[in-house]
Each structure stands twice: as structure tokens, then as C-alpha cells.
Automatic annotation (TrEMBL):
Alphabetized InterPro entries for the sequence: Clp1/Grc3, Clp1_C, Clp1_C_sf, CLP1_P, P-loop_NTPase
Lineage summary: Eukaryota, Fungi, Dikarya, Ascomycota, Saccharomycotina
Any GO MF annotation of the entry: polynucleotide 5'-hydroxyl-kinase activity
GO cellular component, one term: nucleus
Domain Clp1 C-terminal, first and last residues per copy: 248-335
Listed name of the protein: Polynucleotide 5'-hydroxyl-kinase GRC3
Keywords: ATP-binding, Nucleotide-binding
A Pfam family it matches: Clp1
Domain Clp1 P-loop, chain residue ranges per copy: 41-242
Length: 335
């Protein structure tokens, strides 16, 4: 824990001094922003716990850090399958992990207001191009908030990542995209010597990025697949029915399928298979299309939608697929 505390003090020294208080101002100057920290590590190495520690310590210093979750298998302030970002201005709830957001109803502590984009797949490697696209859209939203709020900008950004980014290809290319999109200034590698060395080599010419290695916490335990599924089920349950502290009462709405359009997220294995291309279309003509049009696949109404959780986008039924992939999430429905 002393290593994590020293890391916090180092980050605190990089934060501008005059960022306490309230109010918004134009803060488009990157030099007035706090550190942007990217946390990497293998599975069950304590990445999320480290993000919680750094966030909690920053809040105790009267900072409002921006927390970014890039792990689609774990929902932070929302359901699994989304990438989210939210400024944290209050202590975290030790009983509920990250605490409550406004989507869970009234909260005992300060509710969080997450900005979410739907990825819809469990692993970033299932559709790398779409994952990078969602990251870029989320980074634009975070940058817009930092430009308008000097307190959040001065407090910095803390980014949690999935363990799949530890793979050389394409995991490390995704890391490079995250560093470029979020203007990352520090990469923290938890308990992995090889990845630390590779990150040092990859960003040795980028003087604005520091690579730091910290030890794995002794309290980390390995979680099996059934336990992770139970966490995901609980997160979805809490979204619709609330927590044990605050119950919610979801209601049923009958909607005609002619009034909505349903899409599923395409997997790269399907996109690369020429057998699924329309008749008369080859790989060359498919590549020349707008890549955004291949991120989503129209889905005909059928029993396959039963018991599915679907995201409702901030878009109209007539919008094109390129417009849909630019839209943020308004909420979720269970069929």
C-alpha cells in the first residue's frame, strides 16, 4: 500500500495548485490539466482496486478526478458492455464498489453522472476497430468536459483497462490508440515485467509519457468465470431494480417492431468472412465502404431478442449507421 500511496503523492504533485472550488471556465490549455493515468495489468492483478485507491485519495485532497472505464466486461456506473466516464466528487461506497449513479435513483452519497458509449461485446479483441472507435468517441466527450471544467481538468483522468490489452497484437496497438486519444501522461503497469519493458520501448520517443511499474497487491485473488458472471448479473439487476439500499420499480412497455430498428454489434470474424458478403460484392468493394457501416448489423425481429438487454441510443430511427455509432447511450431495455 505504501507504493500506491507514493504513486498518489507523485500524481498530486503534477496537479495544478489552483484547481479547487467550483465553477466552470475555459480550460482548453493542456498544460493546465492534471495527469492522465492509464493502468495496465494482467487479469486479477488489482488494476480496478488501484484505480479506486487513486480516485479515493484524490477525492480526499478535494479533487474531482475523471474516472474512465474501458473494460466492457465490467460496468462502472452502468451495465456491462459499455465504456463509461464520470467525474468523481465524493467518497466511494465501500459496500457497492464504485457507488451509485443517477440511473439507480436517489443515492445516499453524491450520485455520479456517467457518459456512456455502447460497445456490446465482452472482449476488445472481438472487434478491435469498433473498440478503438468507441474509445475515440468517449475521449472526445472527456476532452469536452475537461475544456469546460477547470476543477475536473486539474484533477486529471484515471483510466481502467481490461487485461486483454496485455497481448502484444493487437492489445498494444489499442494501448497506443488510448494514449493518443486521451493524451495519456503516465502508464502504470501492475505486476508485469515484460509488459513494462515493452511499454518503455514503445513510448521511449514520447517524452510526455512516463511508464511506471508497481507491484501487484498481496490481497489479489483469482476470480473464476462463474463469479464474474454473477457480478455482471448483479450489475444488470441493480440497473433495473435498484440496490438493497434503494429499490426501483421497472415498468413494461409494449412497442411495435415497426417503430424501432434493432442492430447487433458485428464481430470481426464475420466481417472478414467473404461468404457473408452480399452477392456480387468482393473484398475490395467491401473495404472501400465507410468502415462505420460494418460496425453494426441490422437484426430482424425474432425470438433471439428474448431476454436480451439492449441499449437505447440518442438517435432517431431514420439515422444512418455512421450516425448511430457516433451516438451515446440514453438507457437500456430488457426484452
Amino acid at each position: 500500500m505504501s507504493v500506491y500511496a507514493n504513486l498518489h503523492f507523485a500524481l498530486e504533485g503534477l496537479r495544478p495548485a489552483a484547481t479547487l472550488g467550483t465553477g466552470a471556465s475555459n480550460n482548453s490549455n493542456p498544460t493546465s490539466r492534471g495527469p492522465c493515468v492509464l493502468v495496465l495489468g494482467p487479469k486479477d492483478s488489482g488494476k480496478t482496486s488501484l484505480c479506486k485507491i487513486l480516485t479515493s485519495y484524490a477525492c480526499k485532497q478535494q479533487r474531482f478526478p475523471m474516472l474512465v472505464n474501458l473494460n466492457p466486461s465490467e460496468g462502472v456506473f452502468t451495465v456491462p458492455g459499455t465504456l463509461s466516464a464520470a467525474p468523481v466528487s465524493d467518497i466511494l461506497d465501500v459496500e457497492q464498489g464504485w457507488g451509485e449513479s443517477q440511473i439507480n435513483g436517489p443515492a445516499h452519497l453524491h450520485p455520479k453522472q456517467p457518459y456512456a458509449h455502447f460497445y456490446g461485446l465482452e472482449s476488445p479483441l472481438t472487434n478491435v476497430n469498433y473498440y478503438k472507435h468507441v474509445i475515440s468517441r468517449l475521449a472526445l466527450a472527456v476532452s469536452s468536459r475537461l475544456d469546460k471544467d477547470e476543477v475536473v481538468a486539474g484533477s486529471g483522468v484515471i483510466i481502467d483497462t481490461p487485461s486483454t490489452l496485455m497481448e502484444r497484437d493487437p492489445g498494444h496497438s489499442i494501448v497506443s490508440s488510448i494514449v493518443a486519444d486521451f493524451n495519456v501522461t503516465a502508464i502504470v503497469v501492475v505486476g508485469h515485467e515484460r509488459v513494462y519493458s515493452e511499454m518503455v520501448k514503445r513510448f521511449k520517443d514520447k517524452k510526455t509519457v512516463s511508464v511506471i511499474k508497481v507491484v501487484k497487491s498481496g490481497g489479489c485473488v483469482e476470480r473464476d468465470a462463474s463469479y464474474l458472471r454473477s457480478l455482471q448479473s448483479r450489475s444488470i439487476h441493480d440497473y433495473f431494480y435498484g440496490s438493497f439500499k434503494q429499490n426501483l420499480s421497472p415498468y413494461t412497455v409494449t412497442v411495435d417492431f415497426s417503430a424501432v430498428k434493432v442492430y447487433r454489434i458485428a464481430e470481426e470474424s464475420a466481417l472478414q468472412n467473404t461468404s457473408v458478403l452480399p452477392i456480387g460484392e468482393d473484398e475490395v468493394s467491401a473495404v472501400t465502404k465507410d468502415p462505420a457501416s460494418e460496425y453494426l448489423v441490422p437484426l430482424e425481429p425474432s425470438t433471439i431478442l428474448q431476454n436480451c438487454v439492449m441499449a437505447v441510443l440518442n438517435a432517431s430511427r431514420e439515422d444512418s449507421i455512421p450516425s448511430l455509432v457516433e451516438s451515446e447511450v440514453l438507457g437500456f431495455v430488457h426484452v
